[in-house]
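Extended Data, record Exosome complex component RRP45
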Amino acid sequence: VPPKPNRPTEGILFFNLELSPMAAPGFEPGRQSELLVRLNRLIERCLRNSKCIDTESLCVVAGEKVWQIRLDLHVLNHDGNIIDAASIAGIVALCHFRRPDVSVQGEEVTVYAPEERDPVPLSIHHMPICVSFAFFQQGTYLLVDPSEREECVMDGLLVIAMNKHREICTIQSSGGVMLVKDQVLRCSKITAVKVAEITELIQKALENDQKVRKEGGKFGFAESIPNQKITAFKMESAAVDTNNVEEQAEEIITKADPPSEVFAKPILHTPGTAQIGEGIENSWGELEESEREEAAEEEAESEAAAFECQKMETEDTSTMGENKKAEPIILSDSEEEEVVVLEPQVLPKKTRAQTNLKQENTSKKTFNKRRRKKRAAP
């Protein structure tokens, strides 16, 4: 990665703390809450601004290529005092981390795989660790390492980051509590004792891990998984005695109670069904009392609904029969096709009577004309 322009010979450190709903239901994914911003700033001040890591050792080629270290912290279970656990986890991860070895020959940079050369650990000067103090009743009571419930009712919080050399790396006070100089000094003394204990535990754990890795035994997450549990990856093999299996099976069968009734042939209760097993009645499909009551209620409801449907159908058919005389004939093959309406061409009675009268009048006039012509001829 190219370095920053203002620091061409120093590597880049990036810290990120994430609060997911797995840690607590109140945390929302992908949302920068006020607590998350405050914790990220504290982690950066504790691990980056304290200069606990030699960033110049991460330089490969000055002004061109440097190593970039990214530290991601994920909270698994939030029970209070996240900053202390995050600082311990972060510094232990940095101490345990190994980067690939690099060699530079002229302008060529070669990065060696772990099989070719052993990875190189980071150059760490000291291990800063945060210790939190909760204050109650305006600083009257002091509590170290508060839990989640204690954090909800506390009046103020003081966080001190210190190393085993009694050097304060960062200090932050939050809340509405005004602290006196004696209280801060008392907290710093308690912090020195706690940091010395935690640093000793971290160093012992790292030494044991390094020894186990050299010996080729279990290390890391595999060491924390106990055997003979569901979450174990591998179970220890156990010897199974397969001798006299048939005799033991016969003894078990003879000791067992014989079935009450043995049926030589299957019983056909209804066509298409038969009994399953020998000497045991088939209870498949039998309902309990509560289920029987529910089934009876459902049958009664269905019968009532069917009766109402029949009533509605009879009423609809009667109304349809009355309206059929006045409705035109509709022919349709399907719902999607066009509907063709055929209306009968029936003429009204008045028009027929009028046409008949006109025809009779015309025929009478023609007959009278013919008679007059015949009379005038002789």
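Summary. Residues 329-336, 348-353 have pLDDT under 50 and may be disordered.
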